[in-house]
Specification:
Structural class: alpha+beta
Strand content: 25-35%
Number of domains: 1
Shape: globular
Helix content: 10-25%
Number of helices: 3
Distance between the termini: 40 Å
């Protein structure tokens, strides 16, 4: 009888211990995204171009040298308050490359250091953009027409938090991933943890493609306004 009671006591004690494996995950959809535009020979025109509410956003160099686009994306992490992040995966569905060009490209994530917003602009051609509306982000304005970026083109950390690595072929209707489990992408996990711990610093990421004189290095991705919304999956405990 004493042995039976002893085993019962041990079982109860173990049951009362905190779980050693209480990992969980949550998949979030973007709550803001946008494209900002730079045309090297039309800089003043670029200042007020945006595509806040369009179904796509664009990153990389389009069909003219030094005409490049950068995408902005943000996720609300408030539901993860108090969590410790194990890993994160950003997934964005690619619509297609510029003119279906199949040469190699890559896309990097950069932590933004300044608040920005998304307005109601909707470009008929996501590669060209359209006139910014109130609260849109542009190359010059973080919140059009009231707040300027401290650095035009977005106030962001130059060192990338993550990269897709080299992508080849036409990215036609495929998912593109940034995973913190890849050793060079560990900073994106740190970014998310810092944003959970300090929500006031969560300004999201800037997505940067190949920029310069190489043509058709841009890719168009589906935005949160589409059926293929960008998602961030956070594995945490």
């Amino acid at each position: 009888m004493k042995t039976k009671k002893l085993f019962l006591g041990i079982a109860l004690a173990i049951a009362m211990l905190p779980s050693l494996s209480n990992a969980d995950s949550r998949t979030l959809t973007a709550d803001r995204d946008n494209t900002i535009y730079y045309n090297h020979d039309e800089e003043s025109y670029s200042d007020s171009l945006s595509n806040g509410s369009g179904g796509s956003f664009v990153a990389g160099t389009v069909n003219t040298p030094n005409y490049y686009r950068r995408a902005l994306i943000h996720f609300d992490l408030s539901r993860l308050a108090g969590g410790t992040v194990d890993s994160v995966v950003l997934k964005i569905h690619a619509q297609q490359n510029a003119r279906h060009d199949e040469t190699a490209r890559h896309f990097t994530l950069h932590k933004l250091n300044q608040e920005w917003k998304q307005g109601d602009s909707e470009a008929a051609d996501p590669g060209r953009g359209t006139q910014a509306q109130t609260n849109d982000a542009t190359w010059k304005w973080s919140v059009y027409p009231n707040s300027l970026w401290t650095t035009e083109g977005g106030n962001f950390v130059e060192t990338a938090s993550a990269t897709t690595g080299t992508l080849t072929d036409d990215l036609l209707d495929v998912d593109v991933f940034w995973r913190s489990s890849v050793s060079v992408n560990e900073q994106m996990k740190t970014d998310v943890q810092n944003w959970i711990n300090n929500p006031s610093t969560n300004f999201g990421w800037l997505i940067k493609g190949i920029e310069g004189t190489d043509l058709r290095k841009a890719t168009m991705f589906y935005s949160r306004e589409s059926a293929n919304k960008p998602t961030l999956t956070v594995y945490y405990h």
